[in-house]
Design goal:
single chain, 110 residues, mainly alpha
Length: 110
């Protein structure tokens, strides 16, 4: 074998090594981008689930407060008339025939 032939083989090996090195770097870059995408996507889902949890927790607390109010009325000598009147006033905006309801509307700041 001549020196020239050995030199050509070494050159081809360098080319192959360079090509494999470039492919490895591209693969690592693609894997890194994919991992970052997965992490960001998971974090967004976690934030959505936290918001849903907070909303459900708020609904649960409101329901527990309503249940406590109903229980208080039922324990208080079964005064259902007062309970019905309070519900009609607070939630349905009803009033007795001789009453007037006034709504205060805040100024628009002009």
């Amino acid at each position: 074998m001549s020196f020239r032939l050995r030199s050509q083989e070494a050159h081809e090996n360098k080319k192959r090594h360079g090509f494999v090195s470039i492919l490895a770097r591209i693969a690592i870059a693609i894997a890194s981008i994919f991992i970052v995408y997965i992490i960001i996507n998971d974090q967004m889902q976690i934030n959505e689930y936290n918001a849903q949890y907070d909303e459900l927790l708020e609904k649960t607390n409101r329901t527990l407060e309503e249940n406590a109010e109903i229980s208080r009325y039922l324990e208080d000598n079964a005064n259902l008339d007062e309970y019905i009147e309070n519900i009609a006033r607070e939630k349905l905006d009803f009033a007795n025939p001789d009453e007037r309801i006034y709504y205060i509307i805040p100024s628009s700041g002009n």
